[in-house]
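Would you mind giving me a polypeptide sequence along with per-residue structure tokens?
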Amino acid sequence: MKNYIIFGAPGAGKGTQAKLLAEKYGLVHLSSGEILRKEIKSGELGEKVKKYLSSGRLVPGELINSIMEKAIKHHKKAQGFVFDGFPRTVGQARALDKTLKKDGEKIDEVLKIRISEEEGIKRIIERAKTSGRSDDNRKVIKNRFKIYHREMHPIIAYYQKQKKLIIIDGHGKIKDIFKDLVAKLKKN
């Protein structure tokens, strides 16, 4: 069983790359964004989640940890996971480690897709034309970048210290980025 985390600034393509990775290796793709949007539609914690997401703020650790643990337990027979958008803090990373350890599992590798803020904004504005997502507007996007840069530094350092971090260049075509990602995984 292999478990991966994919990080990247807004618009970096982490969701796309996570789906491709999950398909290639038969893993379950757990996108915190998709899980939270489902929670808003039909979950018991939907209203709490909605007030955070609509302003571009992160959902508090305790709340997201409990939602993600529930999602992991839902896939008991999984061959592994690709975590997309989670964890976002060192506290969440430790909670994820604890959850996985219960089943004798761990995070194997952490992929960080690097992209410029300019490119990320351009991609999200383009996505907004078809996504219908209320958080795909310039003001919220700028706030998401600010939060990403502030919040991600400690968690990137956390995984770098464990020698699990792999940097992927997120500029270019989807298939080329994925080819680079797979090649870097094979080296580790």
Summary: The chain is about 60% helix and 15% strand. The chain has a mean pLDDT of 89. The radius of gyration is 16 Å. The chain has one domain: 2-179.
